[in-house]
Every structure is written in structure tokens, then in C-alpha cells.
Amino acid sequence: MKRLGKKSIVTLAIVLGAVCLGLVCAGLFLEFVKVPTGAMKNTILPGEKLVANRITGEINRGDIVIFNFFPDPRTRFVSRIIGLPGVTFFFQSKTKSVLINDKPVDEHRIFVEAQYDNDDVGALKTARDEGGSLWLVYYYNETYGES
């Protein structure tokens, strides 16, 4: 049986040290989450795995965040930020539009077929795409299939 040389032992120690350091850093600074629901379809599908940065910084509109549900901190939510401190936002149900500080948000509106099966992990199917610009927003198309 061949003995390991001094060079091989040093190399193995460096590799093992780097792996251990990487695991410690990942445990301290990263969070690994499996998405349980389709609340953010088509952006994030159920079953997808996310890596989140645990270091908090400035949060902007449109950022995706992971947070604890207040009544049960074991429950994790994944959501997109729309409201920020100092602004008011309102959903106008008649026009299906979001207002921030009384101004409509420029949305890329996509109407999709309703999904009645909560266990369906597939992407939403587009029924009508009204276009728009910055924010992709999916709405269920209540009139899909009607003339």
C-alpha cells in the first residue's frame, strides 16, 4: 500500500478546509428554500428550490423576499415587494389595477386560464396578453372561453 506524501496530505487538508469553510459560510449567509405553493406562478413554480441571501440590505419594489408568517414562525412565505414605507397602495377591483400613491403601476398584464387543482405544479396557460412594460402581473381570466 502506497503512503501519502507530504504534498498530498497538505493538498487534501487545504481542499477539506475550503469545503468546510464553504459550508460554514453557506450556513451563515444563505438560506435554501423549496417553494411549497404556486402563489407566485409563473415567476416561481411549486417545487423549485431557491437560494436566498440572509444578509439584509435595502429592499426595493419588485424584490422577492422570504419571510416568516407572523402567527406561525415555522411557516415561510415567498413574495414580491410592492409596498414600501411612506407609500400607499390600493388594488382597484373594477379596473384590476394597482395604484401606488394614487398613480397606476405600469403592468405587463397577462390573463391566464384558471387552475382549479391546487396540486398542479405546471405553469399557468396564457389566455390573453395585454402587454405593458415593467412588471409582469398574472390575472385569472374570468371571461376565458366566452365571446
Task: Please describe what this structure looks like.
The protein contains 1 helix and 10 strands, in the order αββββββββββ. The protein is α+β, with helices and mostly antiparallel strands and 147 residues long. The protein has a domain at 84-147. The longest helix is centred in the first third of the chain and has 24 residues, at 6-29. It is elongated and about 75 Å long. The mean pLDDT is 79.
Mean pLDDT: 79
Profile the largest sheet.
3 strands, antiparallel
Structural class by SSE content: alpha+beta
Query: Termini separation (Å)?
Result: 81 Å
Radius of gyration: 23 Å
Low-confidence stretches: none
- Number of extended strands: 10
What percent of residues adopt helix (DSSP H or I)?
10-25%
Could you give the order of the helices and strands?
A: HEEEEEEEEEE
Shape: elongated
Provide a count of the helices. Answer: 1
Question: Strand portion, in percent?
Answer: 25-35%
Major β-sheet strand ordering:
5-6-7
Helix/strand layout:
Layout lengths: L5 H24 E5 L14 E5 L10 E5 L7 E5 L8 E4 L4 E4 L2 E2 L2 E6 L13 E6 L3 E6 L7
In short:
Helices cover 16% and strands 33% of the residues. The protein has one helix at 6-29, and strands spanning 30-34, 49-53, 64-68, 76-80, 89-92, 97-100, 103-104, 107-112, 126-131, 135-140.
